[in-house]
Amino acid sequence: MTDSLEHDIPEGFKPAQFKGKYLGHVGPYFTKRTEDTILVGLRIMDHHINYVDIAHGGVLTTLADVALSFQVYLSKTPNPAVTTVNLSTNFLGPAKLGDWLEADGYIDRLGKRLAYVHGSIRSGERILMTSTGVFNIT
């Protein structure tokens, strides 16, 4: 089932070109530009599922962190190094095997060294998580 899920990606999403080994291990992630943000997509597969047959909270938290920090990364040229100072999440619903998740992010304030961002994770019309973050820019 995992192989077929990985290839069932909604139109407009392309494989993410994120750097680092960790995100390649916990993904695969996909991105899509919209009018006001870059969406980060993830299909929930077998390796994301916990012992109660839903996506592990760490999977959603990582997706939120990626989506929020990616907005900051793309906000400057050249792209800066972006690290998480604080990430607050609100779990509102579970993600199940096969669900397609889309995470958005919006910059609230962008300074020289810190960025404040908010966003959400959805599966279809369902909001699964909201999040806010503070990110260090170097």
Explain how this protein is built.
The chain is of the alpha+beta class. It has a single domain (2-137), classed as Roll (Thiol Ester Dehydrase, Chain A), CATH 3.10.129. It has helices at 2-6, 21-26, 57-74, and strands spanning 14-15, 29-33, 38-43, 82-91, 100-103, 106-110, 114-123, 126-137. Strands 1, 2, 3, 4, 5, 6, 7 and 8 form an eight-stranded antiparallel beta sheet that branches. The longest helix has 18 residues, at 57-74.
Structural class: alpha+beta
Instruction: Please name the CATH architecture.
Output: Roll
- CATH topology category name: Thiol Ester Dehydrase, Chain A
The CATH superfamily name is: Hotdog Thioesterase
Overall geometry comes to globular
**The number of domains:** 1
**Helical amount among residues, as a percent range?**
10-25%
Cα radius of gyration in angstroms? 14 Å
Low-confidence stretches: none
Total beta strand runs: 8
DSSP helix count?
3
Average pLDDT confidence is: 94
Oligomer: single chain
**Helix and strand sequence:** HEHEEHEEEEE
The level 1 CATH classification is: Alpha Beta
